[in-house]
Design brief:
This protein is mostly beta strands. Helices cover about 10% and strands about 55% of the residues. The chain has one helix and 23 strands. The chain has a 21-stranded antiparallel β-sheet. It is rod-shaped, with a radius of gyration of 41 Å. The termini are far apart.
């Protein structure tokens, strides 16, 4: 048997005190305390952010979509400087003090911004490709009058609609060639004049970047064609005058005399008949005319 020692004080045995059992917190209470602590931290952080002027704002645009802003605002709650998140996936950093937006793809804009923090009004966009546009924007898109200088040396100055060349404008290529006239969907379309760097020039109508309709082509060697075009070539009725004075009036097909026509030499002789692939195949004269018609570049 185990023996126990009993403490005696003044001849009286002292009954030992039992230790109180420690109380354990329940899991539910622990979770509650943790939640309250986290909530206090979140509220504290939110209060600090608010006091610092940081805000999260979502703005719906007129053309659909939205822009999300997170950053500092001014005393009236207007976005001042921060991060932009567009509904199309583009992101950027806005600095309203300098009216500047730096996009995540490397593009950089400086100019007017609308209520939705989109480019609107006069501004300049410097693209990561090296292209630079200066002119008018409408709700984040190039629209109105402006000039775009391309990295390869080309330049367009004129009207834009929804980011495309639309209306009257002048496109100048790096080699000195230039087109002045009407555009549609980024292409020469309508009446205009194209001047090549070698001195040739065409004045007439275009359809989807191709000479089509009626026009006059002045070649650098002095030849002139006046008449119908289609698919960027002499097709239909027209007159081709050589620099030496010879002239053909009649039908063309793929830039060559083809069909009925009249060929007049500078000397005065005249041939009338059928032409095929640039050559006379049936006539009433004795000599076959020279048929070396020019071709545009």
């Amino acid at each position: 048997m185990k023996s126990y020692e009993v403490e005696v004080q003044d001849g009286v045995p002292i009954t030992p005190k039992r230790k109180k059992a420690k109380k354990h917190l329940s899991t539910r209470r622990i979770l509650l305390y943790a939640f309250l602590a986290a909530l206090i931290c979140v509220l504290g952080i939110a209060a600090a952010i608010y006091a610092y002027g940081l805000r999260y704002i979502k703005i719906d645009t007129e053309i659909g979509g939205y822009v999300k802003f997170f950053g500092t605002v001014d005393s009236q709650g207007v976005p001042y400087k921060g991060k932009l998140y567009y509904s199309d996936g583009t992101t950027g950093e806005v600095d309203m003090l300098n009216h500047r937006v730096k996009f995540s793809n490397g593009d950089e804009y400086e100019g007017a911004l609308n209520y939705a923090l989109r480019m609107d009004g006069e501004g300049t966009m410097k693209y990561a490709t090296g292209d630079i546009y200066t002119g008018t924007f409408k709700d984040g898109v190039i629209s109105g009058e402006g000039t775009i200088s391309y990295a390869n040396g080309d330049e367009y100055k004129g009207t834009f609609v929804n980011g495309q060349k639309e209306g009257d404008g002048v496109y100048t290529w790096f080699d000195g060639s230039a087109y002045t006239g009407h555009f549609s969907a980024n292409k020469k379309d309508g009446f205009g004049t194209y001047r090549w760097s070698d001195g040739s020039y065409y004045t007439g109508t275009y359809v989807a970047d191709l000479k089509s309709g009626t026009g006059i082509f002045h070649y650098s060697n002095g030849d002139i064609y006046s008449g119908e075009f289609s698919n960027d070539a002499r097709n239909g009725e027209g007159t081709y005058t050589w620099s030496n004075g010879d002239e053909y009036t009649g039908t063309f097909l793929n830039n060559e005399m083809n069909g009925h026509g009249i060929y007049r030499f500078a000397s005065g002789r005249t041939f009338e008949g059928e032409f095929r692939n640039g050559s006379l195949v049936r006539d009433s004269g004795t000599d076959e005319p020279q048929t070396d018609s020019g071709s545009e570049g």
